[in-house]
Amino acid sequence: MLQPHIHPGMLRNVPLFAVLDEAQVSRLAGVMTRRSFPKNRTVMQAGDPTDSLYIILSGRTKVQMADDEGKEVILAALGPGEFFGEMGLMDDEPRAASVVTTEPCEFVVITKDDFNALLKDNFDLAMVIMRGLVKRLREADRKIESLALLDVYGRVARVLIENSEDINGQKIVKNKLPRQDIAKMIGASREMVSRVMKGLEVGGYIETRDDGSTLLRERLSTHL
Q1: Do the Cβ atoms of 95 and 44 come closer than 8 Å?
Q2: How confident is the model over 126-184, as pLDDT tens digits?
Q3: What torsion, rounded to 10 degrees, do the Cα atoms 100, 103, 108, 109 define?
Q4: 3-class DSSP state for residue 125?
Q5: What is the 3-state secondary structure (H, E, C) of 162-200?
Q6: Would you say 146 and 186 are in contact if contact means Cβ atoms under 8 Å apart?
Q7: Residues in CB range of 181: below 8 A, 6 or more apart
Q8: CA distances from 154 to 64, 138, 151, 201, 205 (A)
Q9: CA–CA gap between residue 16 and residue 64 (Å, rounded)
């Protein structure tokens, strides 16, 4: 659902725009729009023309690809403050992957023309975008390494660690990761992931709490 009228203060809380001055933020707010999507809604589809950049204000999404037989692989999970769609804006290629909401989400959206004009006027913002691309390349390298060198226990452990937050000195996965999604991230079956998660819990490597979050013990890293 399209929701116009962006208040500049809303953009000031987005890390991507922290390098902009007040005048630039105000101009940007004037050309951006807000969009909201319910859970399990496709925001963009692989192969679609690239026409805009999305920044997540709230909620979470997954970035995924599928082969000709419909088998899906999850490339990344994104949350508030993160963005997607920038690659196609820079190389004029169609969308490389699909993005689906895993929670109700709200985004701010900037068109291709406005995005390119903003980059031309702000070197610091261009560097932020480039660092984001490099980060994703490094994450892709780690996924390839995991598939090549780690067993299923190690791949599950890495997914849990990468999706955890440091809360009061403890590593906790606040957002429950569906077994099916983990399976799509590591190239394994849902049944195998369920067995591995059960084994990690019985072995004292993780603890599932009543609120659905998962506490990670320090010894979980021994599986990497």
Answers
A1: yes
A2: 888 888 888 888 888 888 888 777 899 999 999 999 999 999 999 999 888 899 999 99
A3: 10
A4: helix
A5: HCCEEECCEEEECCCCCHHHHHHHHCCCHHHHHHHHHHH
A6: yes
A7: 62, 74, 77, 102
A8: 21, 18, 5, 14, 12
A9: 23
